Amino acid sequence: MITTDFVPGSPCWLDLGAPDVRATAAFYGAVLGWDYEPMGEGEGEDMEGGMFRKDGRTVAGLGKLTEEGARSAWMIYYRVTDADATTQAVERAGGTVRVAPTGLGDWGRMAQYSDPLGGQFAVWQPGKDMGLELVDRPGSLSWTELYTSDAAAAKEFYGGVLGWQFSDMELPGGAGTYSLVTPAGLSEERTQGGIMELRTEDLALADGRPYWHPVFDVVDCDAVIAEVTENGGSVQMGPEDAEGVGRMAVCLDPSNADFVVLTPASS
Hints:
The longest helix has 12 residues, at 21-32. It is globular, with a radius of gyration of 17 Å. The protein has helices at residues 21-32, 83-92, 151-162, 221-230; strands at residues 11-18, 35-38, 49-54, 57-64, 74-79, 96-103, 108-114, 120-126, 141-148, 165-170, 177-182, 193-197, 211-217, 234-242, 246-252, 258-264. An 8-stranded mixed sheet has the order 2-3-4-1-5-8-7-6, with helices on one face. The protein has an 8-stranded mixed sheet with strand order 10-11-12-9-13-16-15-14, covered by helices on one side. By secondary structure, it is α+β, with helices and mostly antiparallel strands. The chain has 4 helices and 16 strands.
């Protein structure tokens, strides 16, 4: 499970780059019950971004998509103790530095990368800001997931860079192998995500490249996907029941940023 007791290698932040900040804030407010707190002075199409909160606690960030040619997508940040050392590890392992380690005052330092096949992720070296204030509760991050065309290569890369441990499980019906991700030195009770191998042609959302997406805990999966479609989004897969996991659906927001909603089996 994901907790706010962030350890090295655990997801500690996520944000979304969107072409229309105001419309995107309204969408997630309707779908996940998030309150949006803008930062800066822009309005309408000039709004630059801000924070999403649930029950007064920060659950994600939102910013204006400015990178030319980039698709709107969620960026997941993993905690590290030294962003510079992580950057060197990424380069040694064949990854690419998209944004070099950058200080954000006394809040902390961040960097963004691509893995060797093009999957994008980020890291956060905390200062006074530890990251998300609410996780693993309705309306918040509960899991992270990588779709990739080469799971073995992904495990070698992320294991070397972030120290992750992996355990494999066979999916029902011969659907393949799912690799569970746990931070170094922790038990499987702290499993935080998974890696799923797909054919390159099944990665069309990112033009054949791997991509990470967040899974958000929700009370009622079916009610949430009704809100998704009513507010301009779409459903790629589901809803469907996964034994021992829960009821889930893969969704796209109006700008085609992907995310998953999950009602856990125990709910």
